[in-house]
Design a protein that fits this description.
The protein is of the alpha/beta class and 295 residues long. The chain has twelve helices and ten strands. The chain has three domains: 81 residues, Arc Repressor Mutant, subunit A, CATH 1.10.10.10; 90 residues, Periplasmic binding protein-like II (D-Maltodextrin-Binding Protein, domain 2), CATH 3.40.190; 101 residues, Periplasmic binding protein-like II (D-Maltodextrin-Binding Protein, domain 2), CATH 3.40.190.
């Protein structure tokens, strides 16, 4: 059988759409449809249920997915062995990470890497969970909690601290809280709990006590901008807050500490380009470790 058909099958199974798989593979979506149809005919089995919103695996497709991923893993291992002979590393590496870390640290941390590996394309995407890694939607992921299961290689990158912040325009209108109880008299910026993908995001309760939030954003970037706009007091990562002189710490005794973990799939860890990016991330954050926790 033609392995390229199985590669297309894997892309469709993971993307859930022919169009999305075609975009990822950089081929026409009609070609994806023809190749899947050819694979189904060769196996005499229907692999996908087609719907207007996308596709889902049939029982036969689910069974084939496990076998195809095992073959893919073996091919990746062979590629990893051959990579050691590469003179120049190239290709794309997709990194899933929390939006705050990506925006305020990772994006600029790759300057030296880009000079050293100009043929490697870096993609930063907001996927701060290990699930997309298992589906091969990303190559490396930085998460807030260590995965409990899965064929992953996991390493703790660093702890980081968070505190309460506001800006002068807010203080001029509402004053500064003198205690955590006084937060009930202030407008507080928080996270949209329905979109909290990790229990590590419960830092709002750690810092606010039982005071309610009045303005909520489903991203760290949105929360930070709301605080800077004077909408209310809010929780910010200390390493991010240091980058903005308008942000002022309030109730400095109130703080929360969380951790970043870097995770890579066992089958990908020895690929040259993946290893280069992984090592860069570890080295970069280790070098800057002091900036992540406020003392």
């Amino acid at each position: 059988m033609d392995w390229s058909n199985f590669r297309i099958f894997l892309a469709v199974a993971r993307a859930g759409q022919f169009v999305a798989a075609a975009k990822q593979l950089k081929i026409d979506h009609a070609t994806v449809g023809r190749r899947i149809t050819a694979l189904e005919r060769s196996l005499n089995a229907r692999l996908f249920e087609r719907r207007t919103t996308g596709v889902s695996l049939t029982a036969a497709g689910t069974k084939l997915l496990a076998s195809a991923e095992r073959v893919e893993s073996e091919l990746l291992q062979v590629q990893a062995e051959l990579t050691d002979t590469d003179i120049e590393l190239s290709g794309t590496v997709r990194i899933g990470a929390p939006d705050g870390l990506s925006t305020y640290y990772l994006a600029r941390s790759f300057r030296s890497f880009a000079k050293r590996y100009p043929a490697i394309t870096i993609q930063l995407v907001p996927m701060p969970q290990a699930i997309p890694l298992a589906k091969r939607e990303v190559d490396i992921v930085i998460v807030l909690e260590k995965p409990e299961a899965g064929r992953f290689i996991t390493r703790k990158l660093t702890d980081y601290s968070l505190g309460l912040y506001g800006v002068e325009s807010y203080f001029a209108d509402h004053g500064r809280p003198a205690s955590v109880e006084a937060l009930h008299e202030h407008r507080l910026v928080g996270y949209v709990e329905d979109y909290a993908y990790s229990s590590a995001l419960n830092y709002v309760r750690d810092l606010y006590g039982d005071a309610p939030t009045a303005f909520e954003c489903a991203s760290a970037v949105g929360q930070l901008e709301a605080i800077r706009a004077g909408i209310g007091l809010g929780v910010a990562h200390d390493y991010i807050a240091r980058q903005y002189h308008d942000l002022q710490r309030v109730l400095p005794e109130r703080r929360a500490t969380r951790s970043y973990w870097i995770v890579v799939h066992e089958d990908l860890r020895d690929l040259g380009r993946i290893r280069a990016v992984y090592e860069h991330l570890v080295d970069s954050i280790q070098e800057d470790r002091g900036m992540f926790v406020r003392t």
